């Protein structure tokens, strides 16, 4: 099965340290993400830390759980969503004027079939849902940029 990579990026006029402080604080995730309503970490930010999350799309709410897979301060943060096996990543790269921030969702071995079944049944199909996720990433990055530069 082909891997599904969804990605967006933005240049931010702020240091990687400042941008990292924003993306690595899971309590702030609902402030950035149009879909996330809660992201609660159980323990300090490190590989293996578990989270409970609540997402929303219109009138539909659903919980997920995830586990942090990678933490490289001021460079990279990644977590795997257990329900669909996707890995969400924030990568920070210093630039001449600040930081390039890349957000991606990677389904290394494809999204779990049950997840695709639910997306097709309840959320209008995988292609439109993936477009919506990319739009959400773009919105999230714009909000992080505004907060970092504000």
From TrEMBL:
InterPro entries: Polyketide_cyclase/dehydratase, START-like_dom_sf. Pfam families: Polyketide_cyc2. This is SRPBCC family protein. It comes from Mycolicibacterium hodleri.
